Please model this.
Amino acid sequence: MTRIGASSSLPDIDGKGIRIGIIAARFNDHIVCALRDGALRALARLSVRDSDISEIWVPGAFEVPLAAQTLAKSAKVDAIICLGAVIRGDTAHFDFVAGQAARGIQDAQLSTGVPIMFGVLTVENEQQAIDRSGPGFDNKGDEAAVGAIEMVLILRQLNR
Model:
């Protein structure tokens, strides 16, 4: 039996030679910078070289999918980490931006075959965003980075 990505524990993940793109939204950048820092810590921990990381900033979460899709089509990266923070407010703006960002990122991933990780926080308030972008392993940027490397390795196994 062949088992790829068994659920019992996190597999050994080595990111050497894997090229990563980070698409980060400037809106709520005080949160997004913390997510980016978490992603960079994880990538360093997984042996991804700084020279293999491309970082692109876009105006907001709504613009993230187009940048991710364009980067994925360029064949310059093996995976993309999308980072942003959409915080619910008093209007329906949250519902439109959060849903469309998620849909757009998923569509870009499926249309290109490149792993594109959803590290866009969709939270009720700023405190929730702060809690999910802190310095520990529960930082969602860290989680997205680990997922990106893992997906590249899984796809490589599946395509053998």
In short: The chain is about 45% helix and 20% strand. The chain has one domain: 20-158. The longest strand covers residues 79-87. The helical segments are 29-45, 64-73, 93-112, 126-131, 140-158.
